[in-house]
Amino acid sequence: MSAKNRLDRIVALVAEKGFVSVDELSQICQVSKMTVRRDLEQLEKEGRIRRTFGGAAALGSPLTTGSPLPGGNAQSMGAELDAIPASAKPELFLVDRIDVLIATSVNPKYDGRLLESVSRKNIPIIAESLAIQDEESVVAVDNYQAGFDLGRWAGDYACSHWGSKAYALDLTYSLTNTQARSRGFAAGLHQVIPAAEIVLSINAQSRYATAYQLTRDALTVHRNINIIFAINDSTAWGAINACKDLRIDPDSLIVLPFGLEGDTLKNALMDGGYCAGGLAMFPEIVGPACVEAAIAAYNHKPLPQHIVTPYVIVTAETLPDLYARTDQHWTLRWDKVKETLSLPISVDFNRAWPIGQLPRRMGFIIPFSEHEWYRSLIVSMEDYANRLKIGFEIIDAEQNLKDEIDFRRRAIARVAAGLVRDSDVILIDGGPIANYMAESLANRQGITVITNSMSVFDILKHNPEIILILTGGAYRHSSQMLVGPTAEGALRELRADMLFLTVSGASLNFGLSHTNISEVTMKQAMIRSAREVILLADHTYFGLESTIQVAPMTVVNRLITDDVLPASVRLDLTKLGIQIVLANEA
Question: Is 143-280 CATH 3.40.50.2300?
Answer without folding.
Answer: yes
